[in-house]
């Protein structure tokens, strides 16, 4: 009996001990959970405070650089660049001045460093690295953000883009960034016109770079070239069946809101450059009144009419800009000298015309100041085949402009000068260009190869449409272009019957449509459609439409590039720097 009582006592004591242990465990877990919750709250609050400091720095940088842009209007780009660089270098000395209060007890935040990353900075942008930390109840977190600062318009940062909708039909190969201001539409069906409108199913586009869209829902795809649908990221099984090229574009995409896109106003930029040509940026306001006329900006006048009216007032003798006129043979046929026989008069007229041609040709290749051409200018590749601005050839920061008050035709010629055209631009043949051109009319590039003079390039900014075309199709020789093209209109480019190769970029304010296939293409006599090679050919070599980005444009053409009225800021993903014993975290891509 006593043995049973002893056993019962031991059992009771064991149960009491077990319950005590369980109680202590529950209490410890509760206390630990509360502690972890508090630590997590402190962690989140400290990260938020550090982010707040970085935001304060960026607001200060944006305001200061915007003010510098306004202060340096009309002065050389190099002067503005130096002022901005000195300002960014000085920021680290002012880091303690970024002070903000917080209502949190036991909290503090501050900037630890602001440095100019000279290794990452280029001719097109400055890169600063901002570090900020914050402490909340002993929890310390340090954030780092890289920021790109630029004073050039955004379109120069992209291989391909539009402020509207970008349609990529078929298999263009794009190396560099792409921007879609409204939507990006992907399709494996290329459209083309032969005798009738036709289509060809091929591969999806290949983008070796980042596609920037308004939101990830603004990227859509089609399997038949007609009906488009959203990328099915919420359905893993359906997403896994998507074409790899579509998935690559989506997973390498980033969001860039249109509100942060730094636009270009072609007519305003034209006025900027005319003011530079006149010798004083202060003339721009006066020039704008003449340019827009009594009807103002909203009148129905064409930009060509406006530009002609303005430049007419600047030509000699009424204006003060050196003015030349291309000799025209018919003008010299009116020359009269009654002392000469008919035969002598004929030879004299030819002699005077030839002398005028030689003089005009010499002036075109030795421009020492801004100059107006009164009327059309035709570089035919024989009589006239070169334009050279001495300041540009010598690489100085002087801003000279050749203003063509009419149409400009460039055929088998070389240009090393910055040019304003009030009319239309025509480019054909083999041309070598080191030039920034603003065109108020339309532009056509027909059967032309554009290479760089001294390995430079063309920057073409056209108010009207830009047509790039090769009439002799079915050749395996590409239309090779080196330059950046911008149009205020819509644009369509093709790599179907012809091969299109661009080193630079193409940007449209309106919708942009690309149609391209791969492999060789042949005519099909008696049939309304082309004959195509196998359309499953991968690799850049098989592509009939290729664009490769060229960042050298900022160094090569910065004197002539359009100025912007606000700074262009690009924020890289924020990094949470690792504390002792932790692993750092960074922003990641768009994996579903």
Q: Could you please describe the fold and organization of this structure?
A:
The protein is an alpha/beta fold and 592 residues long. Among the domains are: 132 residues, no CATH class; 237 residues, no CATH class. It is 28% helix and 31% strand. It has 11 helices and 37 strands. The strands form 5 sheets. The chain has a 21-stranded parallel sheet that branches. The protein is flat and about 150 Å long. It starts with a helix and ends in a 6-residue tail after the last strand.
Q: What features would you highlight for this structure?
A:
592 residues; six-stranded antiparallel beta sheet; 37 strands; flat
| Proportion in helices | 25-40%
Gross geometry: flat
| Number of separate strands | 37
Question: How would you state the average pLDDT, rounded?
Answer: 87
Query: Gap between N and C termini, in Å?
Result: 71 Å
Q: Strand count, sense and closure of the main sheet?
A: 21 strands, parallel
Taking Cα atoms only, what radius of gyration do you get, to the nearest Å? 33 Å
Poorly predicted tracts of residues = 34-39, 103-107, 580-592
Strand content: 25-35%
Helical segment tally?
11
Please state the structural category.
alpha/beta
């Amino acid at each position: 009996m006593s043995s049973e009582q002893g056993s019962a006592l031991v059992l009771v004591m064991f149960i009491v001990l077990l319950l005590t242990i369980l109680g202590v465990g529950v209490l410890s877990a509760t206390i630990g959970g509360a502690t972890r919750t508090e630590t997590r709250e402190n962690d989140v609050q400290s990260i938020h405070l550090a982010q707040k400091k970085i935001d304060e720095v960026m607001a200060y940088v944006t305001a200061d650089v915007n003010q510098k842009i306004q202060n340096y209007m009309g002065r050389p780009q190099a002067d503005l660049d130096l002022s901005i660089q000195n300002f960014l270098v000085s920021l680290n000395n002012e880091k303690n001045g970024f002070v903000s209060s917080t209502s949190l007890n036991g909290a503090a935040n501050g900037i630890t460093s602001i440095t100019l990353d000279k290794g990452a900075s280029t001719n097109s942008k400055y890169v600063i690295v901002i570090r900020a930390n914050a402490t909340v109840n002993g929890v310390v977190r340090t954030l780092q953000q890289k920021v790109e600062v630029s004073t050039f318009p955004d379109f120069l940062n992209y291989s391909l883009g539009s402020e509207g909708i970008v349609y990529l039909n078929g298999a263009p190969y794009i190396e560099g960034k792409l921007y879609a201001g409204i939507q990006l539409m992907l399709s494996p069906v290329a459209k083309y016109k032969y005798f009738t409108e036709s289509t060809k199913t091929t591969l999806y586009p290949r983008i070796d770079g980042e596609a920037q869209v308004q939101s990830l829902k603004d990227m859509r795809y089609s399997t038949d070239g007609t009906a488009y649908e959203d990328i099915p990221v919420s359905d893993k099984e359906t997403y896994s069946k998507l074409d790899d090229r579509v998935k690559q574009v989506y997973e390498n995409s980033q969001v860039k809101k249109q509100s942060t896109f730094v636009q270009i106003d072609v007519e305003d930029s034209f006025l900027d450059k005319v003011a530079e040509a006149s010798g004083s940026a202060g003339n721009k306001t006066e020039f704008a009144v003449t340019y827009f006329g009594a009807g103002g900006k909203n009148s129905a006048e064409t930009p060509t009419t406006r530009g002609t009216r303005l430049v007419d007032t600047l030509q000699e003798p009424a204006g003060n800009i050196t003015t030349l006129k291309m000799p025209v043979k018919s003008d010299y046929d009116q020359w009269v000298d009654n002392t000469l026989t008919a035969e002598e008069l004929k030879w004299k007229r030819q002699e005077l015309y030839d002398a005028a041609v030689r003089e005009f040709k010499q002036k075109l290749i030795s421009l020492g100041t801004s100059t107006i051409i009164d009327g059309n200018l035709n570089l035919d590749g024989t009589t006239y085949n070169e334009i050279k601005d001495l300041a540009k050839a010598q690489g100085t920061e002087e801003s000279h402009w050749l203003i063509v008050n009419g149409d400009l035709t460039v055929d088998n010629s070389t240009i090393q000068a910055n040019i304003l055209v009030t009319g239309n631009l025509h480019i054909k043949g083999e041309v070598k260009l080191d030039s920034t051109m603003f065109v108020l009319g339309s532009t056509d590039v027909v059967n032309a190869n554009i290479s760089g003079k001294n390995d430079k390039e063309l920057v073409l900014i056209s108010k009207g449409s830009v047509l790039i075309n090769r009439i002799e199709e079915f050749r395996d020789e590409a239309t090779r272009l080196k330059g950046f093209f911008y149009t205020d209109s819509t644009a369509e480019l093709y790599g179907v019957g012809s091969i299109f190769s661009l080193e630079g970029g193409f940007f449209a304010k309106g919708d942009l449509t690309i149609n391209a296939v791969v492999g060789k293409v042949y005519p099909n006599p008696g049939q309304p459609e082309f004959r195509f090679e196998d359309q499953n050919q991968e690799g850049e070599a098989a592509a009939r439409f290729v664009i490769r980005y060229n960042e050298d444009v900022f160094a090569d053409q910065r004197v002539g590039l359009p100025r912007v009225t606000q700074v262009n800021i690009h924020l890289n993903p924020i990094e949470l720097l690792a504390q002792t014993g932790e692993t750092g975290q960074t922003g990641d891509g768009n994996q579903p």
